[in-house]
Amino acid sequence: MRKFKGQRCASFGDTGIFSFYPAKMLGTAGDGGMVCTNDDGLARKLRAFRDNGRVESVEVIECFGWCTRLDNLHAAILNMKFNYFDKWVERRRQIAALYDEGLKGVGDVVTHPKSNNDYFDVYQNYVIRSKHRDELVKHLRASGIEVLISWPIPLHKQKALKLSHFNLPKTEQISAEVVSLPIYPELTDDEAGIVIDAVKTFFASGKS
């Protein structure tokens, strides 16, 4: 979990919400999630929401709800993964440090914000920015490196949402520049080096 000023996420505020989608660091075999709160009343309402409005009795419905219970199989997978979570975080931070150092001063690359005294990052993703993002992505994929572009179309530009009246130039700029580099605990230092070298090669070739 990320930390802010020494406090773990979900340890402050009314609620903390975690996704257990398979691609997350703590992912299960399907969709899942968790809400944390210290408010007993809110906790009861959340329990009701997840089980068709029921809390203590299958016969008494307290409110409208949904069937969103996490089944035992998914819970068991997550429970097992907790044994490795700290090691996975440590490894991701090591890989991020390799990228930080290796991509320093390369082309117009803006690297992922670094952790500092206030902010501890677990690096679910390692995101860089470049005005030459699309060409860089083509180069990396042609080199056998899998990368991810999140939300290539900003949400307010999705026609079905009818939000085009919003003027969000920064959102549009970031959407056009961001790409996530490979980062997962099993990635070796040599493989991270291959990614770094491929980015350097792209900018050194003048293709940008």
Brief account:
36% of the residues lie in helices and 11% in strands. Helix 3 runs parallel beside helix 6. It starts with a strand and ends with a helix.
Please provide a written account of the structure.
This protein is of the alpha+beta class and 208 residues long. It has two domains: 3-81, no CATH class; 87-204, Aspartate Aminotransferase, domain 1 (Alpha-Beta Complex), CATH 3.90.1150.10. Helix content is 36%, strand content 11%. The longest helix is centred in the middle third of the chain and has 18 residues, at 85-102.
As residue ranges, the low-confidence spans are none
* Backbone CA Rg: 21 Å
What structural class do you assign from the helix and strand content? alpha+beta
Portion of residues in beta strands equals 5-15%
> Strand order, biggest sheet?
2-1-5
- End-to-end gap: 36 Å
Name of the level-1 CATH class of the largest domain: Alpha Beta
CATH superfamily of the largest domain: Aspartate Aminotransferase, domain 1
Characterize the overall form.
globular
Helix share of residues?
Answer: 25-40%
**SSE pattern:** EEEEHHHEEHHEH
Per the CATH scheme, the topology name of the largest domain is Aspartate Aminotransferase, domain 1
Please report the number of helical segments. Answer: 6
Number of strands: 7
